[in-house]
Amino acid sequence: MLTPEQNIAEEAARAGGAVAARYFREGVAMRTKDIANLVSDADVEAEHAIAAVIRKTFPSHAILGEEAHEGDTTAEHLWIVDPIDGTTNFAHQIPHFAVSVAYYHHGVAQCGVIYNPIREEWHSAAKGQGAFHDGRKVQVDDATRLDQSVVGVGFYYDRDAMMQATLEAIGDLKRRQIHGIRRFGTASLDLCMVGLGRFGAYFEFQLSPWDFAAGRLFVEEAGGKVTDALGNPLPLARSSILATNGPLHEPMLDVIRSRCPQ
Q1: What φ, ψ does residue 231 adopt, rounded to 5°?
Q2: What pLDDT, in 10s, does the model give residues 25-69?
Q3: Which domains does the chain have, with CATH numbers?
């Protein structure tokens, strides 16, 4: 049986997804926050729809969102939401984006949902209960060497030093004979790809909590490991990230740690 928080996470993701899907089909004007960082009325309206669902049941809980909610990350009860993760894909009519909703208690992830409303694809996880894709329990792959895996990567909006560091890390990984690099532009879904066993690893040198709050739990509940790119515990703050199937974590750190901007 789902907990009340799990039920609300799904209801909130569905509400945000309905807004995003409507704008995706009907069109929306995009605005620029900074270089390559887009936002639209869809992002803002979807976040408000998500927050309304949460507050209806949990009015005293804090909400941290990308667009309009600045909840305290030290709050006992904290919801972390990304109304449209993969906004650039969304803006260019690429149906690879997601709504991400996670609930944390005393800073520990309890449940999370990542929902692609165009493909009607659900990824969910709950602490101690496992990770599920469209209702089917999933787990990470069993690769033990980098040359057995595809690696996912993300690029932050920075087009200078951080971009160069990421490109250098990709080159190092290619020289380790990985099967390939994939960059799909939606961090929450990239993390799900690790939990689904499709990527052996995924890394990015800067993400915000709403980008990884639900996805990190999905990876962990699927049997994987998540840290920052230096191997430290992942904070509820802007951070680098490395998610792997577990056996590939140290080999990945050996490659990317030296490239991670300090």
Answers
A1: 95, 5
A2: 987 665 555 544 455 788 889 999 999 999 999 999 999 987 666
A3: 4-138 (3.30.540.10), 146-259 (3.40.190.80)
